Amino acid sequence: MVVSMALAAAALPTSHAAAEPPQPTAFDHGIQKNTAPGTHGPLPAGFSRTELTVKFRADRKIRLTGDGRTRRLVAHDSRDARILQRILDDYPGATIRRMSQRSETAITAERVKLEKNTKRALPDLNAWFAVAVPTGIEGLLEDLNALPSVEIAQSIPELTPSSEPLQSRQLYRNPANSSAGAGVDADYANALPGGKGQGITLTDVEGGTNLIPRGPANSLASGNAHSLMVADSIGHDEVWAWGANNRGQLGISGVAATNTPWKIPGLTNVIAVSAAQDHSAALLADGTVWMWGENGSGQLGDSTTTDRPTPVQVPGLTGVTALATGPNHTLAVLGDGTVKAWGSNSYGKLGNGTTTNTLSPVPVPGLTDVTNVAAGLNHSVARLGDGTLRSWGRGTSGELGTGNTAHSYVPTPVSDITDADMVSAAGSHTLALTYGATVMAWGLNTHGQLGDGTTVKRLSPITVPGLSNITDISAGSDYSVVRSARAGTEALAWGNNNSGQLGDGTTVKRMVPTVVATPVDLVRAGKSHTVVKTSATTPELKAWGSNTNGQLGDGTSISATSGTSVVTRLNQWNTCHEEFTSRATSAGPPIRLRPMAGDPCESGSDQGHGTASAAVGGAADDNGAGIAGIAPYAKLQLNTTADAAWGIDAAIATSQAGDVILLEIAKAYPADGSGKWWPVEYYAAAYDQIVLATAKGITVVEAAGNGDNSLDDANDAYAVTIMDRPDSGALMVGAGEPPSVAGVNCAGSGRPLARTPVVKSPTSLGSTYGSRVDVQGYGLCVTTAITWSGAAEPNKVYSVNFTGTSAASAMIAPTVAALQGVMKARGQLLTPAQVRDVLRSTGTPQQPGPRHIGPLPNLRAAIESVGN
């Protein structure tokens, strides 16, 4: 619905946006591409050294066509595309993709419609692209910004969640004239039709963090239908798992399967992982081995045949330096170069001269100076320090490489190899990487997994043709994958491809090595899926192949024939908290706009910033526990900024006129010691997204930041960048002092007057301030729900002091949702400009002083000012 023009004219003051002359064109970032922070070198601290976004001039019509390895740049003038491609080629490993995940057609249609409605030109989000570059970003920025086809290229800032520690009570719901202190008068709005946010979508966009896959070669593993990685999420190495869990192979009790990575509880300081058919293993830095999953043959080594859904330590095994898992047996290399084995001993694959299973580790006789091991279906291989190999177990298909098909119950020399650097085995074939960076292969070849162009099994090692500069190898059940350092690093694969496990975009079997992905750093093959780590300063994981159990980790169960991204953005919300689960009786549970890594019942950190932000507005008010959200019936959406689109694009796509987007992100610059913070819109891509959102009728609530600095500072390049542009239309929020009784509030005694800007002190970070800041919320003493994994009942934890502009913005966003809910019920939705004006003009005034953060909104006064 559209608000009555007579009502709007009579009841609302003129907005900032309305006072500005119509813009004949969208803001041209080109006038700032040599001055805005992050557009040139030397880059200030806090900017990415590997990622940037670039906006091309709309009239140049620069686009990407194709997908995967066939993607290429095109342009209205082909010279533009050639020049851009040459520049990118000058930076090995550089990749470019569209910033938005929405289709170009959808984005254009939305922009054209909004331009018609608003009578103004709007930014074209199709002109924005994201570029990743392993090294040399400052040179690339300079090269791109020098091109006439580029409007602006800017390094992606390392944004910081606008967060502080937590502590106090729900005074922010008070009436403006309350003797306990002024609030937004939530109860008044909540009592009106629509006043609990009915029909309004509130999206919380949090500062996102990603899992960081670790570097060592054994930090990644693929099993039958599950995957493992060692990742750093909070400063130490942990194991994350995804895929099938029918036998406990994920190490996470109570989870049937997961299509995104989840952390395995209790494992830290891990240096290597191994994944087999349905069991898994981890090697810790202290030399101990922990295992979990299927144990029917004793492959977990704990002296039982009981499956283990969570990790158990292999008793009596210490000093381990390497390990390998086959479908039902396990091998470990000890620090003295000897090997121990356990589990199934069919065909003598434990190497102890028998075929008797063993439920605990036993020595493999005759082996010394072993550096690493590999385990296939029914055979085992060891690499010795002198570069020779020993193998034992089943030999029917030539998998032992001894020149015949005999089984061997003890280690036997592999023929013709004296310079092996690495060995890998799976199914009934084996691969070895030589010091000369070539690959040798032997064994079963039914699907061409040996890569020699035939399906003839090989009883002795043969050289895989067409390979050079190989640095990593991985044998899958009936296919093979390697990593080459040529051409800026690439993955090559061959063999069976019925599930797309080769990653070349087809399901066609390949008899010889075929390039399938670039750039890559590590490759790991499973039964019918592959996981690789990309080559980048900030690496990510890609996967392809079978995905029926979520083993690709991309948030789906859809198989892929080429690389799909494993979800590494960390969950920021505990949606199992009692304040969210009970929303099912009112507005429904929170909705994550994109898949996220981690248990949805835990946030990415014990502070629970996302949980706290969302609960201020979205906590259930009818469950008889905890707090009452300001807009408890609003539809609550959750998203993070752990990608180039900053999480805003998905929020825009799923929001309509009248809805609210909360940006709980800001730019912090503590590296220079100043501690300054700025609102996220200083970043050109975020600015354009905010402009589009507000043009669509979505109110964007933006945290000003916790820097104790002024946005009117003419000597501050970040502030100048913001203030020299036309108003983005966002409702910018500062942090004000909460009410005190005799100078005492939750932060202690001697507090300043309520509604004065929070100033930097030992107990608080000061609010960013200035003429651009529209309104304030409490910067201290905001009571909310949080999450804390160490609590006895983590889903029932609360804080009395959520602080900073995070708390203030989390308070204002649902205030807007409550206001719009009332207006929607009346058929009188407000525009974002009208929302801003009515909240400023009717709010409880800021205390006099030099630092402007605006009034505290008053819902009663705001609603009454626009009539009934």
Automatic annotation (TrEMBL):
It comes from the Bacteria. Pfam families: Peptidase_S8 (PF00082), RCC1 (PF00415), WD40_RLD (PF25390). Residues 14-47 are annotated as: Disordered. Keywords: Repeat, Signal. The keyword Signal applies. Residues 603-843 form the Peptidase S8/S53 domain. Residues 217-482 form the RCC1-like domain. Residues 1-19 form the signal peptide. This is S8 family serine peptidase.
